[in-house]
Amino acid sequence: MIADMQTVRIIAVRHGETAWNADGRVQGHTDVALSAAGRAQAALLADALAQQHDAIDALCSSDLLRARQTAQAVQAATGAPLVLEPRLRERAFGQIEGLSFAQVQARWPADAEKWRKRDLYWAAPGGESLLRFQERVIGAIQDLAQRHLGQQIAIITHGGVLDVLYRAATGCGLQGARTWQLGNCAINRLLWTPGGQLALVGWADDQHLQQRAIDETTS
Questions:
Q1: By the 8 A CB rule, do 182 and 159 touch?
Q2: Residue 36 in contact with residue 84, Cβ under 8 Å?
Q3: Residue 97: pLDDT band with limits 50, 70, 90
Q4: In this model, does residue 60 exceed pLDDT 50?
Q5: Exactly one of 15, 29, 148, 158 is catalytic; which is it?
Q6: Between 53 and 52, the higher pLDDT residue
Q7: DSSP for 153-191, written as a single string
Q8: Domain range holding 65?
Q9: Mean of the pLDDT values across residues 28-47?
């Protein structure tokens, strides 16, 4: 019973779309703003979270602009207090930020191969390895959960962070091939239980985003 009362419900969301997302460019820590499409996604997300039955007790966001803008839309709709957490940033990719994978492959084929194979220790110059990134992300989630025992929290973050959380919740190793979606502004739900375990509840729910597609087709 005590463990149930301390369980933390986590809503984890990737930020809205940016122009770099649409172009297939590596963003990392580069501070890219939401595009018009991303702002529309954030508004639909905010409306969906405001209408859910259970209130959001705390809202935590990466401090990068694309996540912060998404979180601010959610805060305005739900009234949840917003805290910025730099440890929820995307993985740092250093000198390859701003490039596509094809460009990285053309310039640094050996690095591109290590990246493609999800080498645990590889890091772009000025970036971070998968192992260091995982350690940062899991540490942030554990700290957040400990501060909000028995509550529901929403985190607005990045695709790489969500990938780490999915793997932690399902037991899929860091080097396994990804078969799950990391859609912009889709809603993902996890449970954190005392002892630090994560469990998957629901993933890639984007029903709230379908209204925009309907509006665009009928306008």
A1: yes
A2: no
A3: very high
A4: yes
A5: 15
A6: 52
A7: EEEEE-HHHHHHHHHHHHT--TTSPP-S---BT-EEEEE
A8: 2-218
A9: 98
CATH number of the CATH domain containing 71: 3.40.50.1240
Decide if 90 is catalytic: yes
Assess whether 97 carries a catalytic annotation. no
**CA-wise closest residue to 20 among 40, 1, 2, 34:** 34
Which residues have a Cβ under 8 Å from the Cβ of 24 and sit 6 or more positions away? Answer: 100, 101
pLDDT digits (tens, 9 = 90+) for 161-180: 999 999 999 999 999 999 99
Residue 196 confidence (pLDDT) above 60: yes
Active-site residue (options: 17, 85, 90, 97):
90
Which pairing describes strands 152-157 and 187-193: parallel, antiparallel, or unpaired? unpaired
Total number of domains constituting the chain: 1
